[in-house]
Design a protein that fits this description.
single chain, alpha/beta, Elongation Factor Tu (Ef-tu), domain 3, Rossmann fold, 2 domains, seven-stranded mixed β-sheet, globular
């Protein structure tokens, strides 16, 4: 069951003029959290903003003895709620509900795990990389952004033993272009003799492109969706996702059935159209 706590802000680390990481004192949530799950955070007391916002659990914080003490969230300042989190002061408290949602299934060491992140889509992968490292699963992070200043925590993944492939649209770091370009090249090179599972999170068009590549190359892809969420508990139906199962199409709630879903089930044409209408994602 999810736990609702008034979590104290332990630290606010500014990564740039737009991005920051907020560390929250929430040991009860941290103890139960699994890779890919999220929390619903109300960045300030009062009514503005009225609703909580969903954020992937970025890191599990631990004390010197390894005991979970809290979680962190990766934040990009884009609206009222994210601006408040960008300016969060250590010692202040924010209501935090979690852990929520369906987690990733971590591949074992008989295969490989390829994480594909676009921008703040990096958020669910730090905990996944830690879990994959514990299983000794060979892992690669394909990480893309518009500019070099949009890429963070690369050294953390490298310390966890993850091979990192970078791409930026302006060519300021890594390969020039979108991250799906080196991903496609790697999929072609892998052939069919290696078992590879893709884990994808980022802008919806990028996830749709990665899902298409996975399908063409016969790979399974698990995607962490960035749906708008009003409650995180399945009550408001704001986060519905079109899926096709057993030959018929219907909607599922990403806060309950996801946010991690098998990419082969998603009706991407409808989802990308919806994403274009609603604007920036609500999560991460």
């Amino acid at each position: 069951m999810p736990i609702d706590v008034d979590a104290a802000v332990v630290a606010n680390t500014r990564l740039s003029d737009e991005y920051n990481v907020v560390a929250l004192d929430a040991p009860a949530i941290a103890r139960d959290a699994l890779p890919g799950q999220f929390v619903m955070v109300k960045p300030a007391l009062g009514t503005d903003p009225l609703l909580r916002r969903p954020f992937s659990i970025f890191e599990i914080l631990r004390d010197g003895g390894g005991r979970p003490t809290g979680v962190s969230i990766l934040n990009k300042r884009v609206g009222v709620g994210t601006r408040l989190l960008f300016d969060a002061v250590p010692g202040s408290r924010v209501p935090c509900l979690g852990p929520l949602g369906r987690p990733f299934e971590a591949a074992d060491r008989s295969g490989e795990a390829w994480m594909v992140a676009g921008g703040v889509g990096l958020a669910p992968f730090a905990t996944l990389a830690e879990a994959l490292g514990a299983r000794r699963t060979p892992s690669t992070l394909f990480y893309g952004g518009r500019r070099s200043v949009d890429l963070f925590y690369v050294d953390v993944f490298e310390r966890l033993g993850v091979r990192v492939v970078l791409a930026t649209e302006d060519g300021s770091r890594g390969e020039r272009g979108r991250i799906t370009v080196p991903l496609e090249r790697a999929l072609k090179a892998a052939g069919t003799d290696r078992t590879v599972t893709l884990y994808v999170c980022g802008p919806t068009p990028m996830m749709a492109a990665a899902a298409s590549l996975a399908r063409r190359h016969g790979r399974r892809a698990l995607v962490s969706l960035e749906q708008v969420m009003g409650c995180g508990l399945g009550g408001c139906y704001s986060c519905v996702v079109p899926v096709r199962r057993n030959g018929s199409s219907h909607f599922v709630r990403s806060c309950l059935d996801g946010p991690v879903l098998d990419s082969s089930e998603i009706v991407w044409e409808e989802l990308t159209h919806e994403a274009g209408l609603r604007g920036p994602p609500s999560r991460h």
